[in-house]
Design a protein that fits this description.
Elements: E1 3-4, E2 22-25, E3 32-38, E4 45-49, H1 63-68, E5 72-76, E6 86-87, H2 95-109, E7 114-118, H3 121-132, E8 137-142, H4 156-167, H5 173-179, H6 187-194, H7 204-212, H8 222-232, E9 239-244, H9 254-260, E10 270-272, H10 278-296
Parallel strand pairs: 4-5, 4-7, 7-8, 8-9, 9-10
Antiparallel strand pairs: 1-6, 2-3, 3-5
């Protein structure tokens, strides 16, 4: 497997992203995962996990108010994204590898009492990992996410997106992100989402994610996801949904989560004015929801 590393020069002077880079080696091959680590070391840990095809830049509107509340905020870039290392082949990525990489990251930083915020693929990874490693997690907040178990057909809009990601010769990351926001992105912000990808060779991870979503019962990820889903059916810790009402694919997935997870009962769930990338549309409101959950439901 060929490891690619985006040049640091690609990330110079990004708007509203002044954060010192941190790296954790998570593989014997020297594979590096980048992460933002802001706030006091003894603060409540808030773990922000991004999805497809974004990176920790997506959380720039949430990090300051979370840090201001006294929390330690950690926002990793998944392998294949952001400042983290990337593989050149789409076949080098799998659901299980992404789970293993993120579990290794959490373990090596020895994160505990975690308040998880996850969206899109961040939810496919975060919900699975929280169910499998419940002792490390204190609370979960989901924005536009779910844990797929292949029990119902994938939406047609998702099938179109998956085909586009795999087959289209044109895969403009920044423009793709912009189409998933109600809030218009500036040219500089669009460029920031393009920054991790100097050429198409760096985009294999972004192209891989849609096809890794387990939509058929035969998918190798389905047994573990179904087991995690069953475990979440016994999750009594605080669980909050803050969804974008305008998300065409996941905007109503909150119903399934709230109905299934005991810890979601009685929580002030919200559907906010926003689209798929709710962090862009409602970043400060999401941070407020997380801060209030931690205050209202101490570990």
């Amino acid at each position: 497997m060929t490891i690619l590393r985006s040049p640091d020069s690609r990330f110079a002077d990004l708007p509203d992203y002044p954060y010192t880079p941190h790296y954790q080696v998570i593989g014997d091959d020297g594979l590096r995962m980048h992460y933002v680590d802001e706030g006091p070391r003894d603060g409540q840990v808030v773990l922000l996990v991004h999805g497809e095809p974004t990176w920790s830049y997506l959380y720039r509107k949430m990090i300051p108010p979370l840090v201001a509340a006294g929390h330690r905020v950690i926002a990793p870039d998944l392998i294949g994204f952001g400042k983290s290392d990337k593989f050149s082949s789409i076949d080098d990525y799998s659901y299980q590898r992404h789970v293993d990489w993120l579990v290794t990251f959490i373990s090596r930083l020895d994160l505990r009492g975690i308040t998880l915020f996850c969206q899109d693929w961040g939810s496919l990874l975060g919900l699975r990992i929280a169910a499998e490693h419940e002792g490390r997690f204190a609370r979960i907040v989901v924005g536009n996410g779910v844990l797929p178990t292949a029990d119902s057909p994938a939406p047609f809009a998702f099938k179109l997106w998956r085909a586009f990601a795999v087959h289209s010769p044109w895969f403009p990351i920044g423009r793709i992100v912009a189409t998933g926001c109600k809030t218009p992105l500036t040219p500089a912000e669009i460029a920031a989402y393009d920054a991790p990808f100097p050429s198409d060779a760096y985009k294999a991870g972004a192209r891989a994610f849609p096809r890794l979503v387990p939509t058929e019962p035969s998918d190798p990820a389905v047994p573990a996801n179904r087991a995690a889903w069953a475990q979440l059916g016994h999750w009594n810790k605080p669980f909050l949904c803050l969804f974008g009402a305008g998300d065409p694919i996941l905007g109503h997935a909150d119903k399934v989560l709230i109905r299934h997870i005991p810890g979601a009962q009685g929580q002030p769930h919200q559907r906010l004015r926003g689209s798929h990338f709710i962090q862009e549309d409602q970043g400060p409101a999401l941070a407020t929801g997380i801060n209030e959950l931690i205050r209202r439901c101490p570990a």
